[in-house]
Description:
Domain DUF7939: 477-561
Distance between the termini: 141 Å
InterPro entries: BatD, DUF7939
Radius of gyration: 50 Å
Structural class: alpha+beta
Number of helices: 7
Region (Disordered): 329-348, 395-432, 561-583
Number of strands: 32
Strand content: 35-45%
Protein name: DUF7939 domain-containing protein
Number of domains: 4
Shape: elongated
Helix content: 10-25%
Signal peptide: 1-25
Amino acid sequence: MVSNTGRLNAWLGLAWLLLCLPALADGASLEARVDRDTLYENETLKLTLTGTMPFSMDISQLLNLSDMDLPEPDITALQDNFEIMDRHQKYSLRTVNGESEATIAWTYQLAPKRTGTLSIPALPFKDAQSDPLSITVQSGNAPPQQGEAPSAILEVTTDKDAVYVQEQLVVTIRLYYRGNLIRGELSEPELANVLMEKMGKQREYERVRHGERYRVVERRYVIYPQTTDAITLSDIRFRGRVRNADQGLQFLRERADKVTVPVSGKPDGFSGRVWLPATSLEISQQWDNARQTVQVGDNIERTVTIDALGLLGSALPPIEPSYPEALRSYPEQPDTTADVNDRTVTSSRTEKTTLVAVEPGTVRIPEIRIPWWDTVNDRQREAVIPARTITIKAADDQAAATAPTRGDSGGDPAPSTEQPSSEPPASEPGNRESGSVWFWIALVLGALWCMTLALWWWRNRDHTGPEARPARPDDERALFRELLAHARRGDGNTLQLLPAWACVRFGRDDLHSVSDLLAVHDDPSLEHAIRQLQEHLYSERVDAGWSPEPLVDALRRLRETAPSQEDSDDSLPPLYPQRLGKL
Length: 583
């Protein structure tokens, strides 16, 4: 009830003053005073301006209160040296011996903007002005009174005294305060040439220091210097208001002590291509097929991952594995992640690649070796994935390819050991007779052979059937229809059916893969269509509008331009006709 009565009296006094202000006479005065003239830069001072004015009451203004302006001093020049933390004002009226006088008091809570000797200039008020005041501001925080704990403490710490360029540095800011915090602002580090991220959420807890229980606000930041310039944390500030145990308001201004961390360049002994300072770094791989033997046309998915502590994901380099020509690679977009918790940064980079076996043989996938710098033990280490050997076999429907046959004798004829004579041998009558007999025998046999061939040709001239030439497999058309069906669907079986159909169509047995077919038939449009299909199957970067029509058209052109065994009339007749034995 007392409080409500006080508010009512204050409002009545203000209303009364507003009624009287239009009739205020000249002769106003303004007095300035402070509660201290020496303070530390983390402290505040109270400035009180008191203005006194004579007045005469004008009842005619009762109905025009909204048109009345309450006068106040011009404090623009005051803000050059001081920050106004809070302000309020109060009014009083009194009449002595028939003379009425109004008094207005403006109170400002000021925080110095710098150290040294600061001036509170003369401040104007109506036709009066205040006297200037001089204030001395000392650097640093005010020491606590004897036996009294400080009202607030602001400290900045780092987890390392020195770092390398691009090495992780954790900065912790803690604000300790007593009482109930009503309002407060805690600044964040402002640094140039660094990458900085906040670590986790702000923590709040309680601690005992100087024998008093404090409430603590903690913030953590991770910083990665990008140059060798030293990191200087020098402008971390807090300002706010707390309500003390006696329910009084207290203004707090704290500034943390400066912290400097030197930054070194990359060590000369580091041999890696990319500088990677980390707490730990590992590289691993996964295969969707653990077999050491695959077939031409098989797909193998390989996943390689780098895991690191103390590095951002953006700092992890591309893995860039190399593969032999027998394996065609289709890499996907890399996946990079980083988890910034309240202790450190955990990051990873994952690269997936689909490998397609295109040539038979034994291939070796080289090792992957990534040098990195161990910041805990201050030495170079290497993360390694060992090499792997894979055997690629021909596809099952192509494994029947045979090697070229030799002559009927099964080998090359042995060279003759007889040496030609420098003189012709002497003719003997017996030898001459035997030679002439064998001559006539050979002549008769040759004539019989020619007659046999002529008779065979005459009997077969009008009814050359399927036995007279190699038979074409009946399933060529069916195989081609199946090939087109898979091509239209855009599935992986297309790449396996294509060489199998080509072997039948071209009458060859050496087309084991798509690469073999493209090597024999130089068709840029077919090669381009096959590349598009492979990207459609194995790459995430493929255009969503892929169409099978270019591949289908290329396959049809290939079938029309390439003669099959059925269409070929230029093949030589067999050396030994199949029906010769029936004569």
